[in-house]
Amino acid sequence: MQEGIAVLLLVIDMVISTKWRHWLDFLIVMTQKEIKARYKHAVLGFLWIVINPLSQMLVMGFVFQFFVLVRVDNYFLFLFAGLLPWNFFAQSLIKATPAFFYERNLIKKAKFPREAIVLSIILSNLFHFLVALGLLVLILVADKIFIEGYVFSQLLLYVGRMMWLIPTMFLLVIFTVGLSLITASLNVRFRDVTFIVQLAVTLWFYATPIVYGLNLLPEWFWPFFYLNPMTFITELFHYALLNLPITLIEFWWLGPLIACYTCYLGVVVFHKENKDFDDWL
Amino acid sequence: MISIEEHILQQSNARGEVVIDLKDVGKKYIIHHDKPTLAEDLGRLLQFKEREEYWVFRNITLQIRKGERVGFHGVNGAGKTTLLKIIAGLTSPTEGQVRVLGKVTSLIDLAAGFHPDLSGYENIFLSGLIIGMNKAEIISKLSSIIEFSGLGDFITVPVAHYSSGMTLRLGFSIAIHSDPDILLLDEVMHVGDVEFQKKSSEAIKTLFEKGTTILMISQFVDYLKIHCQRILTFSKNS
Q1: Nearest-Cα residue of chain A relative to residue B126
Q2: Cβ atoms of B215 and B72 closer than 8 Å
Q3: N or C, which end of chain B is more exposed by having fewer CB within 10 Å?
Q4: Is the CB of B189 inside 8 Å of chain A's CB atoms?
Q5: Phi-psi region for residue B183, left (φ > 0), alpha (ψ -120 to 50) or beta?
Q6: What is the count of structural domains for chain B?
Q7: Is B36–A280 a contact, with Cβ atoms under 8 angstroms apart?
């Protein structure tokens, strides 16, 4: 087994050029730094990954269940399934936006792939997200087996639908990367961007169907939600985890399109601004 | 604007290839008296005020061959560091062409890449990758880096608990092991205590012998006269 991995690594080594290998090594070490440094001196350490969304869910669930926001079996689960991807997105964006500015000492003194600063923040958040999501999936599957008593074929269907999580996560990550690269690059010149992002994220939360379902709103209102890729991503999470339908079929092409274009735009903006970072920091 | 005077101390025997080639290079900065805010930009648009611009230097043409050692000397604010930054690729020139061949390592700030909460050991990887080493390269040089820094058991302690001398020693040790083609030194030869200084100047001498192209900034002309083949003196003239 170990020999197999060694041979595989050797092959990868030969395929990937030196430059790319350095880029990858650097990104991995930066991400490890982000993960390790975050919970140093925190007594509860990695438990915070779960405590955070869990307490958020409990408070919101408690408050919002008094209003009829969504008709599902379990409102707490509905909330949790939407909050996890949202927290990943919001925390990544808020932390990545001022990142170039915070790392100005490094940027002004050494030449290295600067995009790794933003990417490592997103990857470390992705790690936390995956841990929390893995726990949720385990609980859901256990619930289906032990409480609802699914037979094998039903379970297979259920787990099969969860495979939708993979392309969904991919969409979520590239959208977050694109947007973070844009805001972080612009923030080098205009520090206002940090404040705009903080404000926008707060408002954006209510413009995304996390605490409510889209079907509660009047139908003429739906097209506006098309423009928000987070709507599609949240609904996909609801679909994959809780078998709730996607409200509009137009989402299927519009969501990925906007996410991909945002990622492309992020790379373009970063490359254009990157040349002048040293002058503005 | 500044002018640059060139002194050739010894005719370099290097007939090697040109590794640094600057042609009519100039760098312009826009002066901000305060933070660049949107309000400031709007104000300027409304008042049709000109941007305050400042040329650090213009029309610099410079060729450095493989294995040459060039000293940069001159008053503060004359653009020595800006020129090194352009060569290192940290900032782009406003005009002109820059061509640099080979791996450039700059020792402009030795401790810039460190994260205070991580151990010295973990920071070797972080800092080593930042200055352009590969992971495999770092692993193979790890024991040598630790030994040269003289940190001993402190290598597993977070860098936040290091004295400033210890931090610089670790930074210098990592940088000297990066084995660059072109080394940029910005007033960093005087690191640590007397014993470490001896060690570090020996390490730099080894690089001299290896034929590394070296560009160094120093206020000490005598130091440059000993170690360099060419000295560029930057002076301001209004």
Answers
A1: A29
A2: yes
A3: C
A4: no
A5: beta
A6: 1
A7: yes
Answer whether A109 sits within 8 Å of B109, measured CB to CB: yes
Domain-by-domain residue ranges, chain A?
44-280
Contact B118 A279 (CB under 8 A): no
Residues 62-91 of B with CB under 8 A from A: 85, 88-91
What range defines the domain where residue B141 resides?
2-236
Q: What percent of chain B has a predicted confidence (pLDDT) above 90?
A: 0
The string of DSSP codes covering B146-170 is: HHHHT-GGGGGSBGGGS-HHHHHHH
B58 pLDDT above the threshold of 80: yes
pTM of the model: 0.83
CB contact under 8 A, B38 and A190: yes
The string of pLDDT tens digits covering residues A9-54 is 666 666 667 778 888 888 988 898 888 887 777 777 778 878 888 8
Q: What is the CATH number of the domain that holds B109?
A: 3.40.50.300
pLDDT of residue B34: 58
Instruction: Say how far apart CA B116 and CA B164 lie, in whole Å.
Output: 12
Q: Tell me the per-residue pLDDT of A245-257, one tens digit each, with 9 for 90 and over.
A: 888 777 788 888 9
Q: What is the DSSP letter of A216?
A: G
